[in-house]
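Honest question from a wet-lab person: if I give you the sequences of every part of a complex, can you actually get the arrangement of the whole thing, not just the pieces? Trying it with mine:
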Amino acid sequence: MGWFASPGKLREAGVLGMNRRNVQCILRYNKRSLYPLVDNKLKTKLAAQAAGVAVPELVGVIEHQFQIKTLLNLIGERTQFVIKPVQGSGGKGILVIVGRDGNDFIKPSGQRVSVDYIARHASNILSGLFSLGGRTDQAMIEALINFDEALAQYSYEGVPDVRVVVYRGYPVMAMIRCATHSSDGKANLHQGAVGVGLNLANGRAICAVQNGSLVNKHPDTNHAFDDLEVPSWHAILMLACGAHEMTGLGYLGADIVLDKLYGPLILELNARPGLSIQVANQTGLLNRLKVIDTQCEQGPQNVEQRVAFSQQAFGL
Amino acid sequence: MKARIQLFIVAALLAVIGTSGALYKNLALDFPLWPGESRNVWTLQSKISFEPTGDPIEVTLALPEKHGNGIIIDENFSSSGFGFLINEERERRYARWSRRDANNKSAITLHYKMQVVHDNKILSEPAAPEGEVAKPRTYPSERESLRIFFEHLNEVSGTDASFTQLMLSKLNAREKSQDVSFLLSANNDDAMAVAAKLLAYRGIHFQTVKGVYLQDGRRRANYAQLLEIYSQGEWIQFNPETGERGLPDNFLVWQRGGISLLDVIGGVNSNVEFSMVVNTVPARTVAMMQDLSSQAALIDFSIYSLPVEQQGVFKTLLLIPIGALVVVFLRIIVGLPTSGTFMPILIALAFIETGLLAGLPMFLLVVGVGLWIRYYLSHLNLLLVARVSAVIIVVLGLMAFFSIASYKLGIDSAMSVTFFPTIILAWTIERMSTLWEEEGPRDVVKQGGGSLIVAIIAYGLMTNSIAKHLTFNFPELSLVLLALILMIGQYSGYRLSELYRFRHMIAAQKQAAKSQQAGQ
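Yes, you can. This is the full assembly:
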């Protein structure tokens, strides 16, 4: 294997490049005015709630430093919650609390933290420590997701999430991102998480990739990915496609988590989803986008029809 | 698709405007395309000497005029004790020195010095002469000889030009015919006077061309004359001594038309002599000097019309499009990650101020120490604005410290770091440390290194003497860069980095295909 693949080979494999993605997908189908809706997690959540799209429950929002004192009131009797920056990206600044012991809180790692620690974290979020470009931010408190045990053995120190790329309302490719020890519990592929390509027809694993190379079991839990099958698959696709109607974006990535009680919930939307999903699936996106383009000429279809079409067209 | 075609048209238009502007300046205004191209500039000094008679003095020197083959870049006069002015009459320029009191009867010399670029290409045609040629005044005694000579010449020549050429060669022949010898003696051996009469007989308009044969280091040269006849709509020059046709290569035309070169009233034994020396001067200087005087609209409305200081600023500013092109190319075509789009350009500009050898280590040092200090500051949970401001002050302190330290150590070059743009450094540190916190040190090295590589390449191109020369002298070429950037802006092919990124995928697919084949 050489250092570089030839452009011809990439084109043959239908790989979508960054430039083509920017010009032909994002610039064409994602109006700039729609960005704030997805870049701001609070707006996304409110819009989703208004549209009846399932999202994790919103506990409260802290907008000003002086409100931090009311943090305990907001949390109330809850023992499990997540504090995250509204404009953060890439999972930065997310504080997860899984338990409570009197005035102390317990992080997933078992570490105990005081109320002051949480207050300081919230203050940091407000001052823009985690937001893009350091803008002042808001802190959002969300209910913790009780993630489905069916997937527990595939993720280490973090919640696995399903990323579905939706093009013009049709799901085109999906993967599940599993946190690893080396990714520090985060689900970002470029930080070392494992990306598992999923069969659009049934949510079964196709292949798994870590740092660009194929793997067949989770490096920390040693669980083989072969028998991975994401439950509630149809519901997940329906949810992802609904995000198209909700936001108006023609090219988006929907990050979906599976909650034990509520089923699939939209965690986050992304107006510029990356290209690593192609690596996780070992398949190029380009050919699938073309299929959608021709399908779109047939006229508009509802969510149910679009999901059915994609499952049929892109299933393996 | 429509937008794409529009873009192509806009880009093509920009490129055409840019290149044609540059070509016009190059071809018509003579701006040199390459730096270091040079021109010969002649410094020509004419020395007028005469002995005053005691009457009021008026000296008139005809100055090189419009229809010459020299471009005067600079001229100056010495006029000690004389009133001096330059007159312009009917496209002709005269220098006039005058003085009333002339009790001093010792010889006087006056000087006129000019710097001139000799260029035969610019020789233009004076207007066609009007009316009939006046009948020449002849002595009754020479008429017969003139007639015989004229008829002989008429017989053996076809055109006016060959008539003139033949006449001149006969007049200058070593063994002259009787008639020619007689004519010359009757006219005080003035071949030109005889020639004038013969040309007038034939009805040819003519004039003399006064000028100087250019020769480096020549002193005390006299002016020379050429004979110029008007035939079939054009002026043709002849060397009156040899009959050679055409303008000699090194002949600088001073004056066309029969007017005398030098008139001295109130003086005798007047004489004008020339001395000359040639210099090699950068062609741009010449182009600028000549066009500033000729006021070509394109130049008049350009950077050159600004004061020199502002020109210096523009010299740097005009390099930015080159840096932008480098960034666009490396990011879109190569896929090199940089932190921010224009930080590499700013870093490159900073390098231009310090020089790369001093700037690069300084940059790494200041940013390194700054990052460390910034890490400490963020530990203190400062708000963003306060944090950035603190970083700026720290950077200032660092720069002062390094400058003083390097000075004490006797390293001179690091001194220039004083001018290192503080804000750029502070900004770099802030960005890098945010990146560190958000993405980890690997991304800092990746993006910071990428930015630095782009900055160094941009620096290399921006300090390139050809690039500097072209951007400053042909700012319209920025439009071509703009067109290029527009074209790259809609490139939707793969980046070089993606060929690397997806290489495993292609290899795996190939392997799968192979094993499938083997299976069958």
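Two things worth pointing out. The first strand of chain A starts at residue 58 and ends at 62. Chain A is about 30% helix and 25% strand.
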